[in-house]
Amino acid sequence: MNTNADLLKELRIDRSAGPPPSRKGLWIALAAVALVAVLALAGWWLFAREGAVPVQTATAVSLASGNAAASVLDASGYVVARRMATVSAKITGRVREVLIEEGMKVEEGQVMARLDPIDADAQRSLSAAQLSAARSQASSVSARLKEAEANAERLSRLVGQQLVSKAQYDQAVSQRDALRAELLTAQRNAKVAEDGLHIADLGVDNTIVRAPFAGVVIAKAAQPGEIVSPLSAGGGFTRTGIGTIVDMDSLEVEVDVGESYIGRVQPKMPVEATLNSYPDWKIPAEVIAIIPTADRGKATVKVRVALKEKDARIVPDMGVTVSFLERAPEADAEPRRGVRVPASAIVQRDGGDAVFVVGSGDEVELRGVQAGGALGGDREVVSGLAPGETVVVDPPEGLEAGAVVSTGTN
């Protein structure tokens, strides 16, 4: 059995054992090494930046085809239709049937809708009855005139034989002349009634809405049972149109060109149009006209551009980018390989053409190339350079391969 003294001995601290090892010094050493490495890297980068040669650069652009021509100006605009109409009825009426749908092709004169013809039919029936009555009256007067003329002729012979009095003859002549005037009036009334019937026929025809030209329906605006009117009634229950049609053969491009660059654009100038929806499709076009007015707010001038290709993919209000070309493209030219770069990027080294290509880490590489002909202010590079690579423009005399440069886009 342990005594109290033994228990107290067990609670005594043994001071002969050393303290447990600490890792604080190891972490301090690692932090110091990392700090030295960062400072060394920053110093190297600052030293390299201070020694970098400032240059201007440009990107090599691919020559996709041989008919490529230098662009003097690029602008953006929209496809618009010169012939577009919201078709309405000439009269106010209730829609009986609508015969169009969006996307439907219609021909000139094709029926698009019909209105309720009850009122127009009733007016036509009335006009037809009036014409019939006028013609009947004219026929009656004509018959009485024939009798009056025969009576006057008979009395003319008798008065010469002194068998009747002169007064009787004069009365017969007066009656004949009155009937002649009455017949002329009846005939004119019949002609008026005939014209009224023709107008009533037009009223019936006005209940039929036809397409004014061939095109494609892009909007259907009315439904059977609705009221349509050529004039706005000021309420939300009266339609002003049946539908909207577009002549797809009249599509063209409208572009806003800045006032500072409008001098580069000329009528009949060749243009290459690219739809935003189809960036790989180059559409040949040309300038139709430069609208002789400017937009004060945007400082632009509107230019109309005609598309030389018709295609179902081209629809109104599409966004389009146009390039105004310095010359007309060559339709039958062979495909051209290579890229175009600024002419000042090509230098002479060892008796041949070369360019300085900016690589990773902003180091330049001196690369021999095969240069071609001039393309405006640029020059063709047939081989030795890939599209998208960055080249140095107007390289300094002392620039050598492997030098570090600070780049700026030219």
UniProtKB/TrEMBL annotation:
Keyword tags: Coiled coil, Membrane, Transmembrane, Transmembrane helix, Transport
UniProt-annotated location(s): Cell envelope
Pfam families: Beta-barrel_RND_2, BSH_RND, RND-MFP_C
PANTHER family: HLYD FAMILY SECRETION PROTEIN, MULTIDRUG RESISTANCE PROTEIN MDTA
Coiled-coil residue spans: 131-189
One GO CC term, this protein: efflux pump complex
Keyword Ion transport on entry: no
Biological source species: Luteimonas marina
The family this protein is said to belong to: Belongs to the membrane fusion protein (MFP) (TC 8.A.1) family.
UniProt domain Multidrug resistance protein MdtA-like C-terminal permuted SH3: residue ranges: 340-394
CusB-like beta-barrel domain residues: 253-324
Domain Multidrug resistance protein MdtA-like barrel-sandwich hybrid: 83-229
Keyword Protease in record: no
Protein name, per record: Efflux RND transporter periplasmic adaptor subunit
NCBIfam families assigned: RND_mfp (TIGR01730)
Positions of transmembrane segments: 25-47
Gene3D superfamilies: 2.40.30.170, 2.40.420.20, 2.40.50.100, Helix hairpin bin
Primary site of residence: other
